[in-house]
């Protein structure tokens, strides 16, 4: 789940850990949560990653999603 604007650092860490766990497990059911987290972080800290790099990260992530969905179970 994405961290709200007034989130404490601990809850941001928890959200980041959840996003990492979803990616690591390639848990397709929760990929949207990762996108929400990335968008929230980019809105909160736009200077952390350039807009172009942010777009590339999202594109790469969506490519990963497509590859996981296309691969046989």
TrEMBL record:
Pfam families: TINF2_N. InterPro entries: TINF2_N. Residues 20-65 form the TERF1-interacting nuclear factor 2 N-terminal domain. This is TERF1-interacting nuclear factor 2 N-terminal domain-containing protein. It comes from Denticeps clupeoides (denticle herring).
């Amino acid at each position: 789940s994405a961290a709200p604007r007034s989130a404490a650092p601990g809850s941001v860490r928890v959200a980041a850990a959840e996003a990492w766990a979803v990616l690591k497990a390639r848990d397709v059911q929760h990929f949207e949560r990762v996108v929400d987290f990335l968008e929230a972080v980019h809105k909160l800290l736009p200077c952390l990653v350039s807009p172009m790099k942010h777009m590339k990260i999202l594109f790469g992530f969506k490519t990963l999603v497509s590859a996981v969905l296309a691969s046989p179970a």
